[in-house]
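Page 47, continued from p. 46.
Same chain as before, 247 aa.
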Amino acid sequence: MKSIINFFKMATKIDVYKSKDLDLRGATIVGGFSSAGIIGSIVANYLVDTLSLDQISVLDSNDFPAISIVYGSKPKYPARIFADEKKKIAVFLSEFDPGNHLVRPIANTILSWAEENRCMRIITAEGVLTREHVSDKEHRVYGVGNIERAREDLERLELEQLRTGIITGVSAVLLNEGMRINFNVICLLANVNSNPGIPDATAPAKVIEVIDKLLPTVKIDVEPLYEEAQKIDDWIKEQRAPSQMFR
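Result:
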């Protein structure tokens, strides 16, 4: 019995090491932890690069995977926070898929950080996997708002709100815990192609378009993602063409 009690006392601890102080009152946080089709990570990476956000903190834990990401000959922590004070945006960027035991600690860390920095909203992105390849025009984005203010934002954009469904992982905890403490959380869901080995650039582009509308302080160019998506679609059509000829 004693060992069981000790097990439940061992809570996962996530440390946030700050390297730069910014005034992020009223900022929007974008969560970039892995999800279906790794859409969250793609969205986060694109925002960091396109908006030239500065790294202001890193996240670390004894329960995080022992990996170091090397960019430009420099090692990086696998979970980092990027932000811009004037643009009023912060991005949590992760390079790993958190296991079930990390989901709640990560979500609670994001919420605590948001409250501590007086941010106004958290936006997450999830993918809805599809068996058949979805073209650019067929991609759809749905929204889920956890409190009335969040749902009003979605209504203002005339974005279709998910009526029935299940959301899992970090996004689910953010929605539920945010609702409990009355903190604005929006989850954006986009159709994601599940073709093995074939990335989906259109889904994150659709999500970023919605984020762009929610953030009046920034202007995000998603054209490069659509160009990449068109290249992928053209490649898929080329691969399918021979099989159709011999039917």
